[in-house]
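User: Some background: our group keeps a shared notebook of sequences we're curious about, and every so often someone picks one and asks for a predicted structure to add to the entry. Today it's my turn. The entry only has the sequence so far, pasted here. Could you supply the structure so I can complete it?
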Amino acid sequence: MWNKIQQVWKIKDIRNKILFVVAMLVVFRIIAHIPIPGVNLENLRNFLAGNQILGLLDIFSGGTMKNFSIVMLGVGPYITASIIFQLLTMIVPSLEELSKEGESGQQKINMYTRLLTVPLAFLQSFAMIRLLNSSSRLPVLTDLDTFRLIATMATITAGTMFLMWIGELITEKKVGNGISLLIFAGIVSALPGSIRNALINYNPSDFYTFVLFGILAILTVVGVVFINEGQRNIPVNYAKQVRGNRMYGGNSTHLPLRVNMSGVIPIIFAVSLATFPPLIAQFFARADTAWVANGAVNIINLFQNQLFYGALYFLLVFGFTYFYTAVIFHPQKIAENLQKQGGFIPGIRPGNETEKYLGQTMSRINLTGALFLGLIAIMPLFLQYFMGTQNLAIGGTSLLIVVSVAIETAKQIDAQVTMHAYDQI
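Assistant: Of course. Here's the predicted structure to add to the notebook entry:
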């Protein structure tokens, strides 16, 4: 490993790219600690400490929410916009045609995604400000008139767009996905604080609980690497073609089907849906109408129940894994392309039989990936419920994202090293 690191460091071009990425991540962490003027940070942190759902969102944002920083929304609105356009591409014919135009079409879709990010960030900032001010007993933002509200929303929106720009600059360096690395940096930055709090609140009676969490972390890392790298290779043969006195084709290859084809997208979907009902209920918890307020409080208490929340979380992750795989994996198109190129799967007829075979095979493989993602997501909650500790609340999901991003970044850097070696030949 150290030889690989030294090899990367000796290549000036790759070294400069990595240093640029590190500098951008440092900028992100600096602006994450710049609060919006007029915010009572003590009231905000007390409110987040007593709210499990908002505390969860704060961890995902890298602590930007508890500081009420100018980038408090993180890259959440951009991710939401990207997911919306990914789904619309499969539904709207014009967008589907645009996605088939290659790089130019993808650039247009990226432009539409950026444009959609602006109103989404503006609306989310308004909802978050109203939620924090209406739900907490002590106001987070004082003297919040219309002008200041609009100025605060514009500032938060600008912060989100700035992070999106940083993410795209990082992506252009081809040493990792910029948005993923920003999420990675946010999660990793919260690790020292979590360790410090765990040590401060350490009780000798919790020793075995910490050991269990340590074992869980190791198993999670091993499992993520194993599942992310796992794939089923479907053999594909190409028919021989005779043209004149020459024979073409006749070679054999394979079609890789990844176990975890959907990545961490199901986790993002599940967290968004699982946190949506209690977030909405927060608005009505102090309603003047008694039955509305009681209903909102009951919803909040229901989602605070870790057994219910864990079961719902697992089902959402499991379901969205199948859903998103169905969105991005198209057996019909693969079967058509194989048939056009003269390829076939041994023992399977080209056309409909190949499509059916690929669909059934992917469904069986996807079962493993869906169960894995679901178990990783709820395992820390499961331990919390039975061990009675609130430490490492989303350790499984955090480790899943961190390890997945680290693997993808390492692959891209390795590809850069390989390309440099070919250029030197």
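Suggested note for the entry: The longest strand covers residues 231-238. The chain has two domains: 1-199, 202-425.
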